Amino acid sequence: MFSVNLEGGPVEIANLDLNARVAPMTAFITTNTIAVTDGTLNIAFSSTVDQPKVSAIEIVKVG
């Protein structure tokens, strides 16, 4: 389980348990829209249980 914070504001994804959401080796997709005002997207992960691993992130510029 882990949480994700984008740009230092409120936590966008809290206590995500992938094993409870999808089958093993299955992609999980979440969409979050965030304003980046300084040209750098800051992403912070915090572990809740064990040592989770993120294998891929896709970032798409809107507009």
Structure description:
This protein has 63 residues and is mainly beta. The chain has one domain (2-47). It has 1 helix and 3 strands; from the N terminus they run E-E-H-E. It has one helix at 18-21, and strands at residues 2-6, 13-16, 43-47. Strands 2-1-3 form a 3-stranded antiparallel beta sheet, with no helix packed on it. A hairpin with a 6-residue loop joins strand 1 (2-6) and strand 2. The longest helix has 4 residues, at 18-21. It is globular, with a radius of gyration of 13 Å. It starts with a strand and ends in a 16-residue tail after the last strand.
Topology at a glance:
Blueprint: E1 2-6, E2 13-16, H1 18-21, E3 43-47
Antiparallel strand pairs: 1-2, 1-3
User: How large is the share of residues in beta strands?
Assistant: 15-25%
Number of strands: 3
Summarize model confidence as the mean pLDDT.
Answer: 92
Report the biggest beta sheet as strand number plus sense, adding barrel if it closes.
3 strands, antiparallel
Cα gyration radius (Å): 13 Å
How many domains would you count in the coordinates?
1
User: Structural class, from secondary structure content?
Assistant: mainly beta
The backbone outline, from C-alpha atoms, is globular
- What pattern of helices and strands is seen along the backbone? EEHE
Question: How widely separated are the two ends?
Answer: 32 Å
**Low-confidence residue ranges:** none
Oligomer: single chain
**Strand order in the largest sheet:** 2-1-3
Number of helical stretches of at least 4 residues: 1
